[in-house]
Amino acid sequence: MDSKLNNKILKTLSEKGLNTESFMEGLQSIKPLTYWDYIQTESLLGLQTQRTDQPDEMVFIVYHQINELLFKMILWEIEQIALEKQLKATFFAERLDRVSRYFDMLCSSFIIMKDGMDLEQYMKFRKTLAPASGFQSAQYRKIEFASTELINLIDFRFRKTINRNTPFRHAFEHLYWQAAGKNHETGEKSAMIHLFEEKYMDEFIDFMKKYNHKNIWTLFDSLPSDEKINLSLINAMRHFDHTVNIKWVMEHFKTASKYLDGANKVEKASGGSDWKKYMHPKYQRRTFFPKLWTKEEMVNWGEQNLETHRILSSFVELDI
Ligand code: HEM
Is 134 in the pocket of ligand 1 (CB under 6 A)? Predict the structure, then answer.
């Protein structure tokens, strides 16, 4: 290595606060890196613990873990957008496309759950899982908090009573997903939601605060107007919204229907929700970016746009 380059490297190391001499000496005894140490394959492959002797329970566990890893990648990219000092439409759209590709993968692979497990085996091992449910995926909730204004996650019945001055804990009690975990007559929370909040409530409140002014929608809305009126970005935002809130929700719903909507009786969800009402996008009507859809698209949300959404060729139809 030429000495100029050597000096440059030593300077960079010392700027990082390293004692360059002992660092270089230490390098002599460093072990060669292996794939398995770097990727930590052994730890990763040791994380699948079945509760039953049913082989297909392994499919269920591993697929959920794959989802969590992709959720991690999604949150990672959203954070890169939030941290960007001078956010530009091209960077924004490019990173959002990454996020959508991860979610597209989750949609196209959901068939692993629907058609990739033996029905009889599933019915056996699911009985050992209550009150656990994918509902308790904290990363899924964080993706929601990081994507949109809190008001868009509030149950429609309470939206008029909540605004930016509402304390976070009060807003939390009115999130749309509270409906899946409460007995409507008594207002009592189910074990599924009770345990979830016990574990994550404080972390969620901090996260909600962190993304209150840095979620994808507010970042978009605060772009200078010439950056904002960018069709690639607007279409990337629409694709993300549609993928998460319609396509994924529908794949999930179809899977739940196959297992829980038996020929003779409707099975109880492991988390105990009134799942048929709760899970269909036409009832939930969750949208991250309502201003990026036309009035007609909003009215038909979850009814006519189940498979695809329109790619906009002009933004004049939108009120932005
Ligand atoms: C056979 C496969 C699956 C079935 C039958 C199923 C069923 C359900 C049901 C019935 C609910 C409603 C809550 C409850 O009472 O439990 C639910 C919620 C949920 N599940 Fe699944 N699920 C499956 C796979 C997955 C996978 C692979 C994930 C990925 C992590 C997942 C994530 C979620 C999430 C995030 C919710 C909450 C959704 C919301 O609040 O809108 N589920 N699931």
Answer: yes
Whether residue 265 contacts residue 183, with contact meaning beta carbons closer than 8 Å, is answered with no
**Residue whose CA lies nearest to ligand 1 atom number 21:** 134
Identify whether residues 288 and 149 lie together within a single domain.
yes
**The model's pTM:** 0.94
Strand, helix or coil for residue 241: helix
Rounded to an integer, what distance in angstroms lies between the CA atom of residue 309 and that of residue 303?
12
> Using one digit for the tens of pLDDT, what is the confidence trace for 36-63?
999 999 999 999 999 999 999 999 999 9
The stretch 268-295 carries a mean pLDDT of 87
22 and 136 share a domain? no
Say which CATH number the domain at 81 has: 1.20.58
**Interval between CA 71 and ligand 1 midpoint (Å):** 14
Instruction: Tell whether 143 is covered by a domain.
Output: yes
Please work out whether the CB of residue 106 comes within 6 Å of at least one atom of ligand 1: no
Average pLDDT over residues 308-312: 86
Q: Cα–Cα distances in Å, from 208 out to 144, 146, 200?
A: 10, 8, 12
C-beta of 103 in contact with ligand 1 (< 6 A): no
Residue with tokens 């939206």: 159
| CA of 258, closest atom in ligand 1 | 5
The number of folded domains in the chain is 2
CA 286 from centre of chain: 14
**CB-ligand 1 contact for 92 (6 Å cutoff):** no
- Tell me if 133 CB under 6 Å of ligand 1: yes
Judged by DSSP in three states, 45 sits in helix
Enclosing domain of residue 220? 56-299
Residue 127 lies inside a defined structural domain of this protein? yes
Segment 284-306 mean pLDDT: 90
CB-ligand 1 contact for 113 (6 Å cutoff):
yes
Q: What is the pLDDT of residues 133-157, one digit of tens each?
A: 999 999 999 999 999 999 999 999 9
